[in-house]
Task: inverse folding
């Protein structure tokens, strides 16, 4: 019974990892052909979120709870990076407009 | 056993929501709709995954850390989405076709939208289109039957 439970978790981990890979591929398509810079920022944001989810899945798969600490760091860096990107896009637009 | 079941259930729903976010960002027609799909569904999916981590490791420290990740994601994702939405609006990437209400428009006209040094604008913006916005996507003529 215990063995069966471990198997169930391993099957779930495999399925969810496949879902994460499929989602990352779809998001990468949007990242590569997104019409504007905000679309690419959104796609990068979502890919970083997938990485955080993959860390969670990997922590369960390897039974190592220490992997949550990189996820915390990633969430922090993700927020700062996204905000910096958004401010850069806005500011670049403003400067380009002032030159006209 | 029930813990394993709960773990797998939460993990699977997290993967499902993440997949929904990817489909949304792939198929939605507009930057703003793409952004809301990615933000809401992605945050919920990753939150479900970390909740399943918290349940799987039956440990106080791990639970606190996983809840910390969830709290941080839920706090920062709306702020980041708001900033990206503002940037998308300023760039003009929002398609007018899908915008029913544009509440930022009057505000942008009033403050010239984050531009500080053009108070002495020679031509003040009249009731028509704002001068510096939607250069790439001008407002189309009134064709309501578009679906």
Result:
């Amino acid at each position: 019974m215990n063995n069966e439970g471990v198997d169930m978790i391993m099957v779930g981990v495999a399925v969810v990892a496949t879902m994460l890979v499929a989602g990352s591929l779809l998001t990468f398509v949007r990242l590569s052909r997104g019409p504007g810079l905000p679309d690419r920022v959104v796609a990068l944001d979502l890919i970083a979120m997938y990485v955080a989810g993959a860390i969670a899945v990997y922590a369960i798969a390897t039974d190592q709870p220490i992997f949550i600490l990189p996820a915390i760091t990633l969430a922090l860096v993700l927020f700062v990076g996204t905000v910096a990107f958004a401010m850069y896009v806005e500011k670049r637009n403003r400067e380009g407009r002032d030159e006209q | 056993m029930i813990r394993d079941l709960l773990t797998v259930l939460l993990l699977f729903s997290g993967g499902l929501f993440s997949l929904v976010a990817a489909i949304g960002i792939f198929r939605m027609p507009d930057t703003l709709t793409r952004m809301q799909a990615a933000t809401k569904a992605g945050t919920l999916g990753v939150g479900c995954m970390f909740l399943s981590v918290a349940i799987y490791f039956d440990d106080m420290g791990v639970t606190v850390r996983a809840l910390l990740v969830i709290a941080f994601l839920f706090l920062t994702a709306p702020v980041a989405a708001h900033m990206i939405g503002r940037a998308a609006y300023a760039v003009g990437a929002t398609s007018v076709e899908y915008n029913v209400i544009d509440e930022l428009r009057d505000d942008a006209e009033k403050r010239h939208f984050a531009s500080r040094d053009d108070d002495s604008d020679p031509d003040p913006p009249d009731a028509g289109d704002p001068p510096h916005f939607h250069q790439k996507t001008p407002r189309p003529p009134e064709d309501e039957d578009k679906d």
